[in-house]
């Protein structure tokens, strides 16, 4: 086995977080879709798919390294948001939480001297920087536009945000 039981268990937990994130992003996408903000909806549908892909990537790593795969239950996502700003804030908060979780996995892999895991997890570290920056920018744009001018956010997204 190329992975310790402790690290495999921690990655299994992260798999659950990633699947939960996917469900949360589907809920946020639905919020925007219902508001007829289709560019924002599309962005979050893509985010949801990415989070699912992250879960599968982690899942395959556990299996490929001979670890025991134990898929955890996911928590129910928040389905309603008082505003578009609140929905994007929720996404940013989630990305910051995931960043901390990935850091914890990296710390655990380092403490175990697991260089394979550290190398594998570096992709997630880099991905989290990109994801946090994306949500910070989007939140800034949504705040500048305000709830009454979200069509300008839609235009911003169309033109290559």
Just name the CATH architecture: Up-down Bundle
So what's the CATH class? Answer: Mainly Alpha
Which radius of gyration do the C-alpha atoms yield? 17 Å
The description of the largest β-sheet is: none
The helical percent reads: over 70%
Overall outline: elongated
Number of domains: 1
Number of strands: 0
How much strand?
A: under 5%
Return residue spans where pLDDT drops below 50 for at least 5 consecutive residues.
none
> And the CATH topology?
Ferritin
Q: Could you tell me how far the N terminus lies from the C terminus, measured between alpha carbons in angstroms? A: 44 Å
Structural class: mainly alpha
Which superfamily, in CATH terms, is the homologous superfamily?
A: Ferritin, core subunit, four-helix bundle
Helix and strand string, N-terminal first?
HHHHH
Q: Helical element count?
A: 5
Task: Walk me through the topology.
Elements: H1 5-34, H2 38-64, H3 84-111, H4 115-145, H5 150-158
Helix pairs in contact: 1-2, 1-3, 3-4, 4-5
Descriptive notes:
It is a single chain. The chain is an all-alpha fold and 161 residues long. The protein has a single domain, classed as Ferritin, CATH 1.20.1260. It has helices spanning 5-34, 38-64, 84-111, 115-145, 150-158. The radius of gyration is 17 Å and the shape is elongated.
